[in-house]
Amino acid sequence: MKPAGLVLLLAGWAIVLTAAALLKPTPARAGFVLAGVGVEAMGLVLLVRAHIVPRGDRS
Amino acid sequence: MSEAASVLCLVMILLVPLASLGLALMNTGLGRSRSAAHTMLAALCIVATAALVYFAVGFCWQGVAGRAARCFNINGRSWNWFGAEAPFLSSLTMDGSPAWLVVLSQMFSAGLAALIPLGAGTDRWRLGPACVSSAIMAGVIYPLYAHWAWGGGWLSQLGTYYGMGRGYLDAGGAGCIQVTGGLAALSIAWLLGPRRGKYSSSGMAAAIPGHHTVFVLLACFLAWIGWTGLNASGAMLFAGAPWSSAVLIALDTMLSAGASALAAAVITRTRFGRPDASLCANGWVGGLVASSAGCGFLSPAVAAVTGVVAGALVTLSVEWIDVYLGVDDPGGSVSVHAIAGTWGLLATGMFGRVPDSQWLAQLVGIATLFGFVFPLAFTLNWVLNRFFPQRVSPEGEWQGMDLHELGAGAYPEFVIHREDFIQR
Lengths: 59, 424
What we know:
By secondary structure, chain A is mostly helical. Helix content of chain A is 78%, strand content 0%. Chain A has helices spanning 2-22, 27-51. In chain A, α1 runs antiparallel to α2 (27-51). Chain A starts with a helix and ends in an 8-residue tail after the last helix. The mean pLDDT of chain A is 90. The model of chain B has no long low-confidence stretch (mean pLDDT 94). In chain B, strands 1-2 form a two-stranded antiparallel sheet. In chain B, α1 (3-15) packs antiparallel against α8 (213-238) and α3 runs parallel beside α5 (127-150). By secondary structure, chain B is mainly alpha-helical. Chain B has helices at 3-15, 17-30, 36-62, 98-121, 127-150, 158-162, 174-192, 213-238, 246-272, 277-294, 300-324, 333-351, 358-387, 394-399, 401-406, and strands spanning 69-74, 77-83. Chain B is built from 15 helices and two strands. The A-B interface holds A 6, 9-10, 12-14, 16-17, 20-22, 25, 29-30, 33-34, 36-37, 40, 43-44, 48, 51-56, 58-59 and B 74-75, 77, 79, 158, 162-164, 190, 193-194, 197-204, 325-327, 357, 360, 363-364, 366-368, 370-372, 374-375, 378-379.
């Protein structure tokens, strides 16, 4: 899960970067940037979940 | 920059080490007494390592806006990605230009960014790996992002090339310093794991109170002075703020910190029946962090509201991260620096005196922090951990970092003798 989370974070950033570089200043560009941030959020959730130690194993 | 502005800027830059001192003292106070000397020494070593590494290689990547840089053409636009300065500052001539002010300010800022993860690693982070990790921060991670935001890099060009407001705005370093450091702190907390005894066998989080609340609260005052210098010098050097805006910047900084600390006091009073000193201190620093992004571009009222939200976010997220995510972060570095800093960047785009489309540039900057800087910090620290384990041995942790790594405790006269408790 950790590598997948990291890959999603990078993929989200790539979407944001591509939208900023290639699209004209239209609502679609803002939409793509928000979509990229959404992909990053999924990656972050995956990474956080991968690091949550099950309650019984925390000690 | 006029001579008066240069002098004022230099004075402000010279206040910045007080922010580092504040953070070091706060991390020490929030840790255990048996690791107090180790935490302070680690802070000193981290700042020293960061300064030397930044001097040797960090400045090569970061550079200064308007000087040599490496650019790529994307869709007909020249994207500025890296600085192209020579190592050891050898490409600069001592001519009193603002570039030297940038170097001094950035050397201090790199140290501050490298210091933030220490709050998450208190009581278990070995001294050697902490220094190597700070070298990675000051030599690679910090200069790269700081170039993009402050060195004339692509984030600062978003306004000129792509009509996103005035480009990514981070006057005092909420993103460059605070979020970068906060995300590195999360990486360190994950890699080190929780302190022994932090979580019970049933998974309940135990409160390990800091050993010196007076240190923690004194640190707030020191950090306030340091942050005022950090925000004012950053706004003048990187956001084009005139020297006359220093008063507004100091006001914004104070109002945001004060509102944030009071919000934390009200929330903890409501939830626990009494205000919690360490969470109020975290709230204070969270407010300082949130003020950094838009200092000089926020009206005083907006700065106060930004602080209230920052205080609420810090107070609630400290508990959430500790209890529900199982992340042992004794100094609250992730909440105070990463979360409050992100909020400050967003608030600047939404409520600052900036063009309408500014929020998009701020969002691209935040996406870069979480989508590039965080994976980079996590991966580099993970590789370091494979070759140079960062966590102290179980025996060392039981003994305390002071005795284990330094051979002497911070408070040798405060030894509890068993016979003191025997009824005579």
